[in-house]
């Protein structure tokens, strides 16, 4: 890391202005030139500036710090112990505030991922903003992680187009760097997940295949299982059901080998959906039940599974069972008040409650005024088709044919949009 | 007067364009019924649900 960039970073971190740092040492314009690498400062000037910043220029610790940083970076990459990760962060943060190290900038960039893993999204955004003005001086390696972690942040904000842009920029840096294969595979994996979320099915398959090839060579079965799940979702979408089932079974097998419950239940959830789409409700229900009975599954995944289960029972007209599951769904929903998807599941669950109880006025109000506008806004095509048809059928049953046509039309138009995607 | 009307109209058009862009910057997102694996690997003593 260039000394100018280092001084600028430390000054910004300490909240000092250029005027305050330069006073009595150099002119403000000269400091600006040093920071932006347009002038080379003499060792005396560097020493005085660092003293004012409270930095030790002794290089003895450089190797130790580098090793410690790499150890901490790896913790962010793999499943690690939370407390150990926090302890190591605190140690490095204190050390790097007073010692000059080439690893400092990478450490600052990795803080974005650290905050995201801890769920501290505001801190992650603050870190991105504070590094923004320094990013012009980043080298290729720093740039790679800068793009990747900004992509991670966009993913957590559900801005998938933005995250894809960032991941593509990171991918463009790979050829200039000597990155470990596991890192490249991880980038391919996140690109695949992002494409899949955006319904770019063929790209999702392409990147999952690339990632799985590397994870297989490294015997990283858990990551292979996650790739198989993406492949299962992708092949289901292009209606290659047998291939999709094969990938889900492989994912489940690898999940069992690793005793990883999350992978097993994610597979159950997706197999349930696959059988629901194929019209095999009994099989779908079998898999959904396994997914919702497990407390270790994430709240969002359990809400997806339980709302799908309600849909299946409703489809089979088994209303008693549907109401029983709705009670369970309410309990899970109450634990998800902070989820960005809370409104969606609230609307879906209550739409079914009103429909089953025959409270049609509440049903039509909720679906027309809340659920359908929400689904349109978030481009949730699958649910939009389902609820438009449900509403249209209700209007047809009660003889409100004009309204019925309106919602059948909406379902059809949405379907055409999905086909064109 | 004409200038004022023209500048107000231009302002409205620009604001409209801005709002249109904002609207269209939103990601296409389909929740459907499938669940994707997470982008971060979970740490052992806590969980991240993304």
From TrEMBL, chain A:
InterPro entries: Cro/C1-type_HTH, Lambda_DNA-bd_dom_sf, TPR-like_helical_dom_sf, TPR_rpt
Signal sequence interval, chain numbering: none
Location of the HTH cro/C1-type domain: 7-61
Gene3D superfamilies with a match to the protein in the record: lambda repressor-like DNA-binding domains, Tetratricopeptide repeat domain
Domain of life: Bacteria
SMART domains to which the protein is assigned, alphabetical: HTH_XRE (SM00530), TPR (SM00028)
Gene Ontology molecular-function annotations: DNA binding
Pfam families linked to this entry: HTH_3
SUPFAM superfamilies given in the database record: lambda repressor-like DNA-binding domains, TPR-like
Protein name: Transcriptional regulator
Organism of provenance: Ornithinibacillus bavariensis
Gene name for this UniProt entry: nprR_2
UniProtKB/TrEMBL annotation, chain B:
Protein name: Uncharacterized protein
């Amino acid at each position: 890391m260039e000394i100018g960039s280092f001084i600028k970073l430390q000054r910004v971190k300490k909240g000092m202005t250029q005027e305050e740092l330069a006073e009595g040492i150099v002119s403000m314009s000269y400091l600006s030139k040093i920071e932006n690498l347009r002038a080379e400062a003499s060792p005396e000037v560097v020493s005085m500036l660092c003293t004012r910043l409270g930095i030790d220029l002794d290089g003895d610790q450089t190797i130790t710090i580098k090793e410690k940083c790499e150890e901490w970076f790896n913790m962010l990459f793999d499943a690690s112990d939370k407390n150990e990760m926090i302890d190591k962060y605190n140690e490095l943060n204190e050390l790097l505030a007073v010692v000059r190290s080439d690893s400092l900038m990478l450490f600052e960039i990795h803080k974005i991922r650290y905050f995201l893993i801890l769920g501290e999204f505001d801190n992650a955004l603050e870190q991105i903003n504070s590094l923004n003005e320094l990013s012009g001086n980043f080298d290729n390696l720093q740039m790679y992680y800068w793009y990747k972690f900004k992509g991670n942040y966009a993913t957590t904000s559900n801005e998938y187009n933005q995250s894809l842009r960032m991941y593509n920029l990171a991918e463009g840096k790979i050829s200039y760097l000597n990155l470990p294969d596991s890192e490249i595979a991880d980038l391919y994996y996140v690109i695949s997940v992002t494409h899949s979320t955006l319904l770019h099915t063929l790209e999702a398959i392409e990147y999952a295949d690339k990632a799985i090839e590397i994870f297989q060579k490294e015997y990283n079965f858990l990551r292979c299982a996650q790739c198989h799940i993406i492949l299962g979702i992708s092949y289901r979408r292009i209606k290659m059901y047998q291939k999709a089932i094969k990938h889900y079974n492989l994912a489940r097998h690898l999940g069992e080998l690793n005793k990883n419950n999350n992978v097993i239940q994610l597979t159950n959830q997706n197999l349930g959906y696959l059988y629901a789409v194929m019209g095999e409700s009994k099989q779908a229900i079998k898999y959904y039940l396994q997914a919702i009975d497990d407390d270790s599954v994430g709240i969002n995944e359990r809400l997806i599974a339980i709302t799908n289960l309600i849909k299946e029972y409703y489809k089979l007209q088994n209303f008693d069972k549907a109401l029983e599951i709705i009670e369970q769904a309410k309990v899970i929903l109450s634990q998800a008040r902070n989820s960005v998807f809370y409104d969606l599941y609230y609307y879906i669950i209550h739409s079914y409650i009103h429909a089953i109880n025959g409270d049609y006025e509440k049903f039509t109000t909720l679906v027309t005024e809340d659920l359908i506008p929400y689904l349109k806004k978030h481009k949730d095509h699958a649910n939009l088709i389902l609820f438009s048809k449900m509403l249209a059928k209700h209007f047809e049953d009660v003889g409100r044919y004009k309204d019925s046509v309106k919602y059948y039309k909406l379902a059809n138009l949405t379907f055409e949009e999905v086909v064109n995607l | 007067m004409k200038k004022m009307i023209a500048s107000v109209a231009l302002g409205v058009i620009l604001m409209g364009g801005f709002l249109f862009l904002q609207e269209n910057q939103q990601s296409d997102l389909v929740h459907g019924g499938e669940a994707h694996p997470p982008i971060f690997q979970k740490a052992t003593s806590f969980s991240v649900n993304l």
